[in-house]
Amino acid sequence: MTLKALMVDVDGVVVAHPPGQGWSDDMLADIGVDPHRLVEVFFDPHFDDIVHGRCDMFERLEPALAQIAPGVTCRQLVDYWFEKDSPLDMALLSDLEHARAGGLQLHLATVQEHHRARYLWETLALKDRFDAMHYAADLGAKKPHPDFYARIGERTGLAPHEMRLIDDKRDNVEAAVAAGWSGFHWTPGATLSQALA
After folding, report:
1. Which domains does the chain have, with CATH numbers?
2. What digits encode the pLDDT tens for the residues 52-67?
3. pLDDT grade for 1, boundaries at 50, 70 and 90
4. How far is the C-alpha of 31 from the C-alpha of 60, rounded, in Å?
5. Which residues touch 66 (CB under 8 Å, ≥6 apart)?
6. How far is CA 99 from CA 60, 96, 129, 157, 168, in A?
């Protein structure tokens, strides 16, 4: 039973905000969008469709913004969101780099829509640190649904026992284990050596 690939979550693992802080905390003061209203009119009713790849984010964001912040463009909000929601855990990335140099494949396994996935991969240059990225809108399934794990297995050609998920949500890890992967529940202060043990 040889571990060949780490499947690493993005939000809460690779992207890690300081405890108690989030990307939208200062959004009202910074660009005039109330984060609570944005959740009500955009994230709650539309984001499930968006992260499953059933529609493009901008299609749903434009009318939502027109309702709650008509002076703000979609591009302004998305640029603000992506920039604020990108503090990388450089210590973890350094440890992952050593693991990769030792022969482990590194993959991102994450619940993202197409635009932020592209931002993470290209603008934040995670493509230079990981072998592949598997994300919900591209797979048509999100964690912890079994299809998410099955489709990654189909794409990579890796056997379930050759993959380990590192994720900050316990139900995602439990679903990975149910799919035959191994898993590690990532919490603040965790280390890669613990995740590999």
Report:
1. 5-18+88-196 (3.40.50.1000), 27-84 (no CATH)
2. 999 999 999 999 999 9
3. low
4. 19
5. none
6. 40, 5, 11, 21, 20
